[in-house]
Description:
Blueprint: H1 2-28, E1 37-38, E2 44-54, E3 68-78, E4 81-88, E5 91-96, H2 97-113, H3 119-135, H4 156-166, H5 172-181, H6 183-190, H7 197-209, H8 233-245, H9 250-261, H10 282-297, H11 300-308, H12 322-327, H13 342-349, H14 367-376, E6 380-386, E7 404-410, E8 420-422, E9 430-432, H15 435-443, H16 448-460, H17 467-479, H18 485-492, H19 495-498, H20 510-521, H21 535-547, H22 562-565, H23 571-583, H24 587-594, H25 598-603, H26 611-623, H27 629-640, E10 641-645, H28 648-652, E11 662-666, H29 678-691
Amino acid sequence: MKRYRLALFVCAAIFSMHQSAYAAKKNKKAPPALNYQQVDEKDIFEISIDVQVKSKKKKNKKKKGGSTSTKKINVQCLDTTPGETSSQNGQLSFLSYNDKIRGLKAQIKQQLRKGKRPTALTSQLKEVKSRLTSAKSKCVRPPFLSLDKYEGPWTSREAQILLRRAGYDISPERVQEAVRDGMDRTIDKLMTYNSNSAFEGVRNDIWCDGYRSDGSDARNRECNPNNPLDFEVDGIRHYLYLSIQEHWNDYFNKLMLNIFYSRSMTAGFNEVSSYFSHPGKHFIAKYVRHLEESARSGDFKAYLKPLFTAFDQVEGEFDAGVLPCDIWLDNRDNIGESPNENCARELWELASVGTEDRISGTPNYSRQDISQAALALSGRRIRSRTLRDENGEAIRWSNGDSVNVWYGTWDSNRHRIGPKLIFAGLPNQAEVFDARDVYEATIRHPHLPTEIAFKLWKEYVSPQVNSATLRQLSQIIAESDLNVHPAMRKIFQSRALYNPENERRLESYPIDYYFKLQSILKIPFFFEGDGNAGSDLEKVDSILSTMGQLFGYPDTVFGFHRRELLNDSTFLKRWNILVQHVFDQEIEDLQEQHQFNYWGRFLYGLPEDGADEAFIKRLENWFGCELNDSQHQELSTYLNYRRKACNYEDRRDGFCEEGDEYWIQRDKFDPHPDKTNLYQRVIGALLAFAHIPQCMLLE
């Protein structure tokens, strides 16, 4: 019996020791780690909230607790989630209040198991809960990043912002029309393509020789419709400038230039335009028409297709892509046994997915992927042939020479046969054989919508963007099957577009400056003493070339970059070139040859009393800016006073002191058309506005 009791005692002791050890082990178990997220600084924004703080000193000892006061604290937000940030291993990390509350509760339970009072933790938990309650309704995406629909007032300010960003016409007449129409109708008008058949006739006429056919220009000629080389490359630019100047399809022209050309993979015309009969010149026309159609449809997939599959096995089907890829980027020299990777690299880096995901920063492809894609793109070749008519006769130039043209063809001997692996190790890994397969794999890349969204936002809204906004915009693009028009409509309707923080944040290209200033002033351009109908378009060409932006002749494959064209060292120089051309015209010639006069454009309808103030206010409205007090006073003085040379009578009457050469004479601004020096004052005021920083037509 004793032995039995002893055995029970030993078992109980062992069991008790085991339970104690288990309890101790359980008590030592660490609370779950806090869920910190690595974030990008641009994805975090800060809000201010009010929290109740209890005073440590008790005002009345008989009453429990102390007095409370309100204290403002800052809370960090990740999209709609409130929390706090800290540095974790050198990386910015975010901890949501919900995750912090879960962590504090786990720590409190651990303290209670140990028999300790978690007073400090309980107090901290209460504080975090209070912050969460106050912050969760305020943690909304800031307006300057919000794609929510703008519901604020619709005035000339908002109308100007939309018209500046969407196109080139910011004339006071167009702004007034937009104010009357309202935001949605204005957007509808901008995004509705005008397919007037007359435009095509004008295009063919100007593309032919660069001049408009109105019967007054001896240089105007007819081109041979059977000869695809019989056109002037300058005429392509001239028609583009005319289309913008006349505001035919403003939104589509800007989308073509800023997204499908300048912000994607550009192509230089110089490779095939060194002489008039260059056999590859027709690729320019096909490429430009492709850019125009891409902007019209908004279909990014259709835009990319000929770039990847320029003449992949089907002769002539995708000739629009020959110039950018096979000529500009040397893919005609891409032989399977000795691959050239230029085209493969730039098709991804510039034209489509970009080097890395704009949200996570992870690479979109590797160096090996480029090599494999280059092998798949191999096999292209450019050959030359003589053009013949339906009777088999050679088509000839006026001098009798036969017309020879380049054409693309497929050469299986130059192609690396067999499977290639691209996007290796990524969820979208693909086995490809040729260019069509590379194209299909590229348009399925999960990060392509994000890259398109990034380009649209940076070009039309602001240099600043966060991941949440990019996700929302890229989702719209993905759901639209890579069509950009729905995303552009969302941008044009967004709170972000009209938020003051995004106003005038974008530097404009020279082409924007020129046509926007022209839309306000409407001063015709022409060569003095030259009655040629096409000379105004030549002048535009000259101005933009001098300013550094000549369509079709980019400095690099990266296209035109605003910072390089309009940096601090060149901005004023280029702006002064434009202003000089705009105002360096004879008033009499403008009136006689173009029925334009400064009084009718700038002064008509001004009151006689207070004309100077009314004129300044008019220009503020037209340029979409507001002068500060100092600028306003200087301009008012300029309009109401004139500098007069000192003479004997002036010195005698005390207007001039000894040694003075000039004095300022009061000469009230009078808007009557017969007033002396009126036009000089108007031109001076316009020049002043053109040089005032806040009025210089930044987007």
